[in-house]
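Marked as duplicate of an earlier ticket. Keeping the data here for the record.
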Amino acid sequence: MAWVKTEKISNLNSLSDVNINSITLTNGDSIIYDSTSGKWINGNIAPQYTEVTGTLIAGQTDVTLNSAAITTSSTIDIYVDDTFFGVSPVGMTKTAGSLTLTFEEQSSNMPVKVRVS
C-alpha cells in the first residue's frame, strides 16, 4: 500500500481548475464549466423554458395562451392550480405563438400555467 499526503482545501478557489469571482457571486449561483477557460466558474443557470399563464373561466372549456416562445415544435408542460388536482386537458391545439387547451367544463375559474421549451 502506498500513502499520499493530502492537502487541506479550504475553499473552491484553492483548486487549480476553479475560478470563483467573489465580486459577481450572488445568492443562487451555481458552479458551471467554462470550456473557453477550462475552469469551473460561478454563474446563474437560467431556466431553459418560458412560463405562460392564463385562466380557464368557469363554464368555458377552452383557454388560449399566447407567447412568441410557443412554436409548433415546442415541448409543453401543463400545470393547474393544486385545488384542481387531477384535471387535465382533453385537447390541445398548438400554432406559432398560440396554445389552446381544452378542458372539461369547470364550475370555478381555474389557473393554468405552461412551461414552453
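See parent ticket for discussion. The radius of gyration is 23 Å.
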